[in-house]
Amino acid sequence: MAADAGYPRPYADVSTLRGALDHLTEAVAAQVEESVLAGAAPNTSIPGDARVRDAFWALLPPEEQRRFFLRIAGSRRVWPRLKTLIGNPPYSFLRPEDEGVLRASGICRGRARMAHTDPTATGYSEFGKGHYEDGAGRLYRVVRKEQGDGDQLPWVGLAAGVRVVADVRVQKRAGATKVAMARGEHGPVAQASLVFPRVGDVLQLRLVTALRGGDDDDALRARIELGRQKAAGSPIARLVLKIV
Q1: Using CA atoms, how far apart are residues 154 and 132, in angstroms rounded to an integer?
Q2: Which of 39, 150, 181, 210 has most Cβ atoms within 10 angstroms of its Cβ?
Q3: Residue 169: what are its φ and ψ, rounded to 5°?
Q4: Could you give the C-alpha distances from 96 to 64, 93, 113, 117, 126, in angstroms and in order?
Q5: Residues 207/51, Cβ–Cβ less than 8 Å
Q6: To which H or E segment does residue 56 belong?
Q7: Quick check: 52 and 81 in contact, CB under 8 A?
């Protein structure tokens, strides 16, 4: 994954979780300062916010997201930017005991909770651009690796034999479109994009465009060992994958 191939990877200067935390700390501070200079209204996006939000969801696994969030949430200056830099609560990376850290309604009107009552998979909007995608257009986000260097970025070091916990998201579709796709009217790939992969399936995964440079081959193969839908009717499922 050469950084100078095609176009530079957005995080070419970040190679570890420690580096990711430094990158995000500086980026959040810069956006807060810029919002003050611009006189931006609370919870209103300014240029650059989306890049920080994408980096937060791409670079950090849930436990590191929680630590980072709790640290920046301790600064009143950051509160008006949490909606645009992180997203709307409740956050999947927070634990039930974190509920009292801030008022959810202060970040997004109408929201009552900062955390979910029980541990949960990634929320639909929390995927950002994801980490990997398959040939059916399903999006994958690595949330934990069971082996390897603990300071690696989530999508790094996925060699053969490594097991990972990953969330998969199927895209939401309008009712009529979904029915037509389910009937096969848009072809087998579109039909497959509506359902989760099954235990035993071997997936061909590739880094999403936002994480790869040029035409480098960032593909890998992974077998699904376990899978559980987030909730009945949810477009998200949690998987255990073994890289093969």
Answers
A1: 11
A2: 181
A3: -125, 130
A4: 16, 10, 10, 5, 18
A5: no
A6: helix 49-59
A7: no
**Residue 212 in tokens:** 């790869």
Q: Is 70 helix (H, G, I), strand (E, B) or coil?
A: helix
Q: Has this prediction a pTM greater than 0.70?
A: yes
Are 113 and 104 in contact, with CB atoms under 8 Å apart?
yes
- Using an 8 Å Cβ cutoff, are 31 and 37 in contact? no
* Domain extents in the chain: 17-107, 127-243
Question: How far is residue 224's CA from residue 203's CA, in Å, rounded to a whole number?
Answer: 8
Side chain identity at residue 114, one-letter code: M
Query: In the structure encoding, which two tokens stand for residue 224, read together?
Result: 């699904």
Residues 215 and 213: their CA atoms lie apart, in Å, by 6
Amino acid code (one letter) for 49: D
Strands 163-169 and 236-243: antiparallel
Which residues have CB under 8 Å from 85's CB, separation 6+?
28, 31, 49, 52, 53, 56, 78
Q: Is a pLDDT exceeding 80 seen at residue 190? A: no
